[in-house]
Design brief:
By secondary structure, the protein is an alpha+beta fold. Helices cover 28% and strands 35% of the residues. The chain has one domain (5-174): Gcn5-related N-acetyltransferase (GNAT) (Aminopeptidase), CATH 3.40.630. The protein has helices spanning 22-30, 32-35, 46-57, 105-120, 135-143, and strands spanning 5-8, 13-16, 64-69, 76-86, 89-96, 125-131, 147-158, 161-171.
């Protein structure tokens, strides 16, 4: 079971990602149902995932990486991340294992992450990048108040074709804390 709760919600808890979670991270970076949304074109070895953990998750760089957990399921359902923190803004990312999707866990987890970003960290702006064909992520961000700010045309090569990446942004003044 993942470590202690850092942020508690109604149905999900966010727990700090630890070295013991490398198996889950490797699944996300290898499973085609998860990795293509994260724009990884190739599965990653254990060594690559360990290097990512050391250089990004465990680094003292201002990033925050949280496992999404519930009491009624053993293990983590996915991860939400606040990264690339610069002055008053940062990027967010999130993913869930396929069997946990469609139950509202991502909405609650991202809501908790945004509360943390705006209220605890004092950020003024967050943003996210979503591959054009990821309808679930587009819907989630728009439901939470994000605004489409731009499009990187044919930015990533996934599943045999070039795909656009859509940029979304949310200002602290626009965040009301509710989906």
């Amino acid at each position: 079971m993942p470590g202690p709760v850092f942020i508690s919600g109604e149905r999900v808890d966010l727990r700090v990602t630890e070295r013991e979670d490398l198996d889950l991270l490797q699944r996300a970076r290898s499973d085609p149902d998860i990795r293509t949304a994260l724009t990884f074109t190739e599965p990653q070895t254990r060594g690559q995932v360990e290097a990512f953990y050391e250089n990004t998750v465990a680094a003292d760089n201002g990033d925050a990486n949280f496992l999404v957990c519930t009491e009624n399921r053993e293990g983590a359902l996915g991860e939400v991340d606040l990264f690339g923190v610069e002055d008053d803004h940062a990027e967010i990312a999130y993913w869930l294992v396929p069997e946990a999707r469609g139950e509202g866990y991502a909405t609650e987890a991202v809501t908790l992450l945004l509360d943390y970003a705006f209220e605890t960290r004092g950020l003024r702006r967050t943003y996210a990048r979503v591959v054009e064909h990821n309808d679930g992520s587009h819907d989630l961000l728009e439901r939470l108040g994000f605004t489409e700010e731009g499009r990187l045309r044919e930015h990533v090569f996934l599943d045999g074709e070039y795909r656009d990446v859509v940029l979304y942004g949310l200002l602290r003044d626009e965040w009301d804390g509710a989906p």
